[in-house]
Amino acid sequence: MSFLAGLSPLIVWIALIIIFAVLEALTMGLTTIWFAGAALIALLAAMIGFSVPVQIGVFLISSALLIYFTKPLAKDFLHIGSEKTNVEAVIGMDGPVLKGIERYATGQVKINGQIWTALSEDGEPIEVGARVLVVAVEGVKLIVKRA
Questions:
Q1: What does residue 145 show for φ and ψ, rounded to 5 degrees?
Q2: CA distance 18 to 88
């Protein structure tokens, strides 16, 4: 840490804010923005005149608090991680039964050009050729009901 000995804590905190902000801009995954905010709070502590150990403590505590309290809110607000996968996208689609779905047993359906294993939502049999609607996905099986 001898290379930091000659630097002002203000310069170090400003540099950290810039580094964390640039990393966040490159990744866009809400991973380092919290540390940029914590570095800003530590910068304010440095401007007030707190010692370097107190500034580091302020940085660590504010990082933890920002992550704990604001990350869930930001994820909900920005809908991060809520994009439908291919499997979730079949919910609401319909298609024909290729292999009859027996009472509480699996059959096969064709949805969006793909063949899936399927179970009847209410456990009742569905015959070959009937149209079904996908209501849920459980593992690799579709849960369907008559369309």
A1: -140, 160
A2: 38
Rounded (10°) angle between helices 52-78 and 9-27: 20
Burial status of residue 83 (CB atoms within 10 A of its CB: 0-12, 13-18, 19 or more): exposed
Domain that holds residue 102: 86-146
For the residues of 61-104, what is the DSSP string, one character each? Answer: HHHHHHHHHHHHHHHHHHTTT-PPPHHHHTTT-EEEEEE-B-TT
- The total domain count for the chain is 2
Give the residue from 96, 118, 94 showing the smallest Cα distance to 106.
118
Series of mean pLDDT values for 10-residue runs along the chain (147 residues): 68 94 84 91 96 96 90 66 65 94 92 92 93 92 92
| CB proximity list for 14: less than 8 A, separation 6 or greater | 43
**What CATH number is given to the structural domain containing 130?**
2.40.50.140
